[in-house]
């Protein structure tokens, strides 16, 4: 019998394994099963190159739990190990610079195991003792038994073992009894070993007999050794891809498209990515890409390995070239990972482009479910943007789809303003903005439908990337100003009348801290509505962005929503209202106006006299006089406002017109709506 010390250069690794690797204990099973798979594959290789002349038999891995004995056994009929090989591969562990590294990665078992090649030793995370029974394929090598109780000492001796291969027996420690449960092991095998390339048996298949579940003699193979992504794309039909998707995500809706990745140079990468039907909640879509390394499951959180927007895709990536056993921060800076990530982005863009070119009808049909994914990509990845801009589609309110270029060609002739900007009109709500859409269409304009979560963000990006391009919501202004082609017709009102009428309407606008109204007069033609409400594009977007981003933008968030109340001076109701205002108020306003004019003149005269003087040269009495004059002026102006407000309050039509405009924008709610309805009934009675 041989006894010895495990060849760790600086320290006893066992406390380390137990103490530090508490987070991912379960991966020991992956490590042991993949070692067994490796041993089987080496056997196959040796046979195929003629180095081994005997029968390999059916190469297979067996996993068994014995809850009573407290053991978990992983066995294989692979190459096995000679005594020398055990010495070399198991007993000698290179283990330098350990402490520093361990401290850094103490929560990342993957990193530690990978760094030290501790795959086998991960068994000690869950075991109080580990035994190896192994017989090499080499004819003259005796079978060996190795055991170790989780301290630096091991024992090794010859033993009886007739068949070629290795059995690793774990004596599970008391803290990890979970791993003796069949259901637990079954779950872990399903998670980590589902697609390993060598059959893995876990017990026997069961069947129902006379109302009872009984074991059959057939092995219960838990894996698919030839998963879809390892096959040649040319051998795969659409059904095969769909079937594989169901295997991965049994509860998901069928995907829209798939991409089969198959790269040999400059790195190895295979995989299948599916475009899911994206639901409104994009967060639910994430973490559906599984990362494999030679068919061994590694992780299903691929952030840092693929660009963020691609994490919305579902499927499998398999690459031996992604350094899996390292920390995430290392991954993100790894050059290979960057290359792979760029490659995947390119492949995804190319295949979308192909589908678009070869089957546009299909592409359009799926567009609505695909859109958010593509927008997300264009917003977060410039390389993807450049490719996607050729197949990113616009949908208009008639349900027609256009590429950016197609749409530009369509609207350029009619929707270019006097400064050469192409104005893309959009709505985010066809019901709410119905009348504005109609008005725009009657003018020969086209209106886009931007009802997606990211549409506005993408519109801002398109404005940045394309010169002379503006996106304007249909209700951002009155129709002639929406796309300003020439100076709009001047309002044919005397200045005083314009100011008074403005005051009449301003006095009756809703007053609260959520909305703010700016009243203006425009000549919109006698057939247009008498009063309209618009919302400035810039201000609205700032508010929307502040709602979604906060931070710097939160200043805008504190402002009330600002609206324009546009009064159409061409409309007969407005004309009549102005006439009535003049008739009713002239007598009251005339003396106030005269007083105002007088005060203004006195103020102007005083200011003129003080023009060239320094403050200290002006007599205190004159300063006092100026202050009084200004106060008087403000009082008089208020008096005038009050006259106009009293007039407006007595004219139900003013409130009625404002309420109608609000109603058209779905802004009339609650008490205001109730008052409007009652007032309307009174109007009908008249
Ligand atoms: P790695 O798999 O990265 O080489 P491990 O610690 O998992 O590191 O295994 C160390 C070595 O032990 C393997 O390279 C292999 O030579 C040997 N070994 C482990 N398990 C088996 C097995 N089931 N059959 C044959 N050799 C094995
Ligand atoms: Mg290993």
Task: Briefly characterize the structure.
InterPro entries: HATPase_C_sf, Heat_shock_protein_90_CS, Hsp90_fam, Hsp90_N, Ribosomal_Su5_D2-typ_SF. This protein is of the alpha/beta class and about 675 residues long.
Molecular structure report:
With 686 residues, the protein is α/β, with parallel strands linked by helices. The strands form 6 sheets. Strands 1-8-7-6-9-4-3-10-11 form a 9-stranded mixed sheet, with helices on one face. A hairpin with a 4-residue loop joins strand 7 and strand 8. Helix 9 runs antiparallel to helix 10, helix 9 packs parallel to helix 11 and helix 10 runs antiparallel to helix 11. The site of adenosine-5'-diphosphate (ADP) has 16 residues, from helix 2 and helix 3. Magnesium ion binds next to helix 2.
Annotate the secondary structure layout.
Elements: E1 2-5, E2 7-8, H1 13-20, H2 27-48, E3 61-66, E4 71-76, H3 83-91, E5 92-93, H4 98-104, H5 109-116, E6 127-135, E7 144-148, E8 153-158, E9 165-172, H6 182-192, E10 200-209, E11 212-221, H7 238-248, E12 257-263, E13 269-275, E14 288-293, E15 296-299, E16 314-318, H8 328-333, H9 335-358, H10 360-380, H11 382-388, E17 393-395, E18 401-403, H12 404-411, E19 422-427, H13 434-442, E20 447-449, H14 455-465, E21 469-473, H15 479-482, H16 495-508, E22 515-522, E23 531-534, H17 537-549, H18 554-558, E24 561-568, H19 572-610, H20 620-650, H21 652-664, H22 670-685
Parallel strand pairs: 2-5, 3-10, 14-16, 19-20, 19-21, 22-24
Antiparallel strand pairs: 1-8, 3-4, 4-9, 6-7, 6-9, 7-8, 10-11, 12-13, 13-16, 14-15, 17-18, 23-24
Bound molecules: adenosine-5'-diphosphate and magnesium ion.
